[in-house]
């Protein structure tokens, strides 16, 4: 049966891949985006589909629609973008959540919150499990995003308990792939763009801090599985990420090797509150969703490098 699905932030990097997947499965998709970080180029190929609709709207303002499911992805997600207008970032998380939860309450729709590994802050538990409450600076430069997403999780759980809204929460770890914004300041896009343009590759700090990188198709599979799960009404939160752990230096060297670039690596001071380690424990996702990532870093990086070659 064809479902009517709202994807907020649907023109963004992850949202555009999700819209594509949902249309492939025969659904009707409403892509809602204010195009602050979303890009029409990401979804232009979908516009030929009669079951795809684009609405320019900021989800921090009320919106009314009749739908069966909602994926709430609307929020700037890279430090450059979310620190540009921190007040608007926290509004997107909190007012946006209140607005999508209002739609879900009124229509009986199921709603999935795209939360983030940033809720763990600079973690003192490694790898990060869902039961860990995090180590977050509530007044730092990154807190508009970290605390906005933490508050959104609170709202989702309270609407579930108080209003009976069917909610799902996933915590997304570093994700990369085609449709990333070349100037989003994320490490994978930064390194690839710098390597392809022959510029210096900038590593912040010692380069020994670690991240775990998942390819976007793995994330989308996890999101859809979480939304479609009905038995025992599992709400999450659940980590969706790739537990393979790499230092920034290892990532830079791999990208230099795959691009054939002669760029030099340079070291810069570390930004404040930048986590030293980030790695998901995905035991819960394996158990509840029968999900684990399938794309190896090298294979995903090849696809992403090809994409950036085309758009640069």
Account of the 3D structure:
The strands form four sheets. A seven-stranded parallel beta sheet has the order 3-2-1-4-5-6-11, with helices on both faces. Strands 7-10 form a two-stranded parallel sheet. 38% of the residues lie in helices and 17% in strands. The model has no long low-confidence stretch (mean pLDDT 94). The termini are far apart. Helix 8 crosses helix 10 (297-311). It is built from ten helices and 13 strands. The protein is α/β, with parallel strands linked by helices and 312 residues long. The chain has helices at 13-24, 40-43, 79-82, 86-107, 143-163, 187-196, 216-228, 248-259, 283-289, 297-311; strands at residues 4-8, 28-33, 52-56, 69-72, 110-116, 167-172, 175-176, 201-204, 210-212, 214-215, 238-240, 245-247, 265-268.
Strand content: 15-25%
Overall average residue pLDDT? 94
The low-confidence parts are none
Extended strand count: 13
Task: Report the order of strands and helices.
Answer: EHEHEEHHEHEEHEEEHEEHEHH
Write down the overall geometry: globular
The gist of it:
This protein has helices at 13-24, 40-43, 79-82, 86-107, 143-163, 187-196, 216-228, 248-259, 283-289, 297-311, and strands at 4-8, 28-33, 52-56, 69-72, 110-116, 167-172, 175-176, 201-204, 210-212, 214-215, 238-240, 245-247, 265-268.
């Amino acid at each position: 049966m064809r479902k009517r699905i709202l994807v907020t932030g649907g023109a963004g990097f992850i949202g555009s891949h999700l819209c594509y997947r949902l249309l492939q499965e025969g659904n009707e998709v409403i892509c809602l985006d204010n195009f602050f970080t979303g890009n029409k180029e990401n979804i232009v190929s979908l516009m030929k589909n009669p079951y795809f609709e684009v609405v320019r709207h900021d989800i921090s303002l009320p919106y009314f629609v009749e739908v069966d499911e909602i994926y709430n992805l609307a929020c700037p997600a890279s430090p450059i973008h979310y620190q540009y207008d921190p007040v608007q970032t926290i509004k997107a998380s909190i007012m946006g959540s209140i607005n999508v939860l209002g739609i879900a309450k009124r229509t009986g729709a199921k709603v999935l919150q795209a939360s983030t590994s940033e809720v763990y802050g600079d973690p003192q538990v490694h790898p990060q499990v869902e039961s860990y409450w995090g180590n977050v600076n509530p007044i730092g430069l990154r807190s508009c995003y970290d605390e906005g997403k933490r508050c959104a999780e609170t709202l989702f759980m309270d609407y579930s308990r108080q209003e009976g809204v069917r909610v799902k929460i996933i915590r997304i770890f570093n994700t990369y792939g085609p449709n990333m914004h070349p100037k989003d300041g994320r490490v994978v896009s930064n390194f690839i763009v710098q390597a392809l343009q022959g510029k210096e590759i900038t590593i912040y700090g010692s380069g020994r801090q670690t991240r775990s990188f998942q390819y976007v198709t793995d994330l989308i599979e996890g999101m859809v599985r979480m939304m479609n799960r009905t038995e025992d009404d599992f709400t999450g939160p659940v980590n969706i990420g790739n537990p393979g752990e790499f230092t920034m230096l290892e990532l830079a060297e791999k990208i230099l090797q795959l691009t054939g670039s002669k760029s030099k690596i340079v070291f810069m001071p570390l930004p404040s509150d930048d986590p030293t380690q980030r790695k998901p424990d995905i035991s819960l996702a394996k158990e509840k969703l029968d999900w684990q990532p399938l794309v190896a870093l090298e294979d995903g990086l090849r696809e992403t490098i090809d994409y950036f070659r085309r758009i640069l």
